[in-house]
């Protein structure tokens, strides 16, 4: 009897890892996130992920763009979920690379839950959320003694396309309010703060935070829409409303201007 010595190709066990890529600068990913990429068989990555991170994945790994960005062709969440499962079953370790942190407006739990429905082991590796990291890089703390005891992180636009009702409550508070994904509704959002008498509340707009395309505009609620237009601020951009923005170096001339007006 002749026994075949042909080596049978091993089938890898399916596994999914949700990795937060951070706000944009490739160096802001965690060491654990980088190690996960180094063992990936497939990387499914989003629009806001720095593609330099793909170089950490093995040469054999499939790199699949499943980005979602306003005005561009994008995969539905359902399609992404199915791709994630198909690749895990057929190739092994899928790294789902998501901008910021997977659980801060990243729909990470939906993907985690979908993996569980197929009994595929899944792990979460947090990332630096742009809501905290990007203001921090601009030396704007989201909390600061004497200025802000808490902060809100609010989506500018809900799934239905409307402004989040939470913004109304956030505007009434003394907290720092960080608004993501709402630049196209900036004028409406500014009106919400004006309705609460906060015309001179400091505001920062930060476009493409932590990347080479970063642009920062600092003003007050009354002027921020005009400043955004003058400086051609484009998405992706976040808004930071709150007294903590007054700590930014660019705010000092604004403070001095209004102090002079108050004395007249």
Q: What is the H/E order?
A: EHEEHEHEHEHEHEEHEH
Mean pLDDT: 92
Percent strand equals 15-25%
**N- to C-terminal separation?**
105 Å
Radius of gyration: 22 Å
What's the layout of helices and strands?
Layout: E1 15-20, H1 31-38, E2 42-45, E3 62-65, H2 77-91, E4 93-98, H3 108-117, E5 122-125, H4 130-137, E6 151-155, H5 166-172, E7 176-180, H6 186-195, E8 202-207, E9 215-220, H7 224-230, E10 237-241, H8 252-263
Helix pairs in contact: 2-3
Descriptive report:
By secondary structure, the protein is α/β, with parallel strands linked by helices. It contains eight helices and ten strands. The chain has helices spanning 31-38, 77-91, 108-117, 130-137, 166-172, 186-195, 224-230, 252-263; strands at 15-20, 42-45, 62-65, 93-98, 122-125, 151-155, 176-180, 202-207, 215-220, 237-241. The strands form two sheets. Strands 3-2-4-1-5 form a five-stranded parallel beta sheet, with helices on both faces. A five-stranded mixed beta sheet has the order 6-7-10-8-9, with helices on both faces. Helix 2 packs across helix 3. The protein is elongated, with a radius of gyration of 22 Å. The protein starts with 14 loop residues before the first strand and ends with a helix. Mean pLDDT is 92; it is low at 1-9.
């Amino acid at each position: 009897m002749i026994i075949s010595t042909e080596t049978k190709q091993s089938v890898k066990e399916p596994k999914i890892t949700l990795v937060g890529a951070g706000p944009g600068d490739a160096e802001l990913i965690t060491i654990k996130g980088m190690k996960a990429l180094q063992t990936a068989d497939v990387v499914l990555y989003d629009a806001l992920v720095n593609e330099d991170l793909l170089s950490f994945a093995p040469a054999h790994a499939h790199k699949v763009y499943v980005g979602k960005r306003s005005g561009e062709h994008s995969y539905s969440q359902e399609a992404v979920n199915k791709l994630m499962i198909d690749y895990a079953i057929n190739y092994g370790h899928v790294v789902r690379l998501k901008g910021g942190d997977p659980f801060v407006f990243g729909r990470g739990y939906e993907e985690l839950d979908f993996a569980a429905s197929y009994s595929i082991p899944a792990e979460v590796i947090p990332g630096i959320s742009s809501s905290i990291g990007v203001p921090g890089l601009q030396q704007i703390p989201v909390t600061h003694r004497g200025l802000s005891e808490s902060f809100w992180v609010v989506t500018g636009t809900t799934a239905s396309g409307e402004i989040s009702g939470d913004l109304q409550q956030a505007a009434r508070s003394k907290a720092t309010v960080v608004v993501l994904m709402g630049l196209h509704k900036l004028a409406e959002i500014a009106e919400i703060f004006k309705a609460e008498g906060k015309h001179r509340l400091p505001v920062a707009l930060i476009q493409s935070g932590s990347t080479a395309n970063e642009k920062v505009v600092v003003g007050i609620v009354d002027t921020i829409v005009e400043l955004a237009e003058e400086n051609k601020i484009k998405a992706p951009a976040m808004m930071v409303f709150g007294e903590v923005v007054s700590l930014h170096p660019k705010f000092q001339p604004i403070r001095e201007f209004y102090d002079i007006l108050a004395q007249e």
